[in-house]
UniProtKB/TrEMBL annotation:
Pfam families: STAS (PF01740). InterPro entries: Anti-sigma_ant, STAS_dom, STAS_dom_sf. This is Anti-sigma factor antagonist. One of its GO terms (molecular function) is anti-sigma factor antagonist activity. Gene3D superfamilies: STAS domain. PROSITE patterns: STAS (PS50801). Residues 1-110 form the STAS domain.
Length: 111
């Protein structure tokens, strides 16, 4: 798994590439914890290039969202497709997370 960070109007976009599983899910939590230390509380996670996510990956996203909410921040998810979308739907997390089809929609939701 690779995580690329970029910023757009004080919003951090994390582009994730690869699989999110038990072995690398903690890396997502670590990256977001560092962003919180930098006082970056508005984060968009791009899952366009994620082919697989397991319960550990979902747990990392839930934990990160909870931590961001402590600082009145948020976590938006974009470009969820295929089997990854099915995981979100089966676990009913489509109502827990704000999921958008585009980066522009997600960043606008922070304003």
């Amino acid at each position: 798994m690779e995580i690329t960070r970029r910023e757009k109007d004080k919003i951090v976009i994390l582009d994730i590439n690869g699989e999110i599983d038990l072995y690398n899910a903690p890396e997502i939590k670590d990256v977001i914890a560092k962003l919180i230390e930098e006082q970056k509380y508005c984060i968009v996670i791009n899952l366009e290039k994620v082919s697989y996510i397991d319960s550990s990956g979902i747990g990392a996203l839930i934990s990160s969202l909870s931590n961001l909410k402590k600082y009145q921040g948020g976590l938006k998810i974009i470009n969820v497709a295929g089997s990854v979308r099915k995981v979100f739907e089966l676990t009913k997390l489509t109502s827990f997370f704000e999921i958008f089809d585009s980066e522009d929609e997600a960043t606008a939701a922070f304003k």
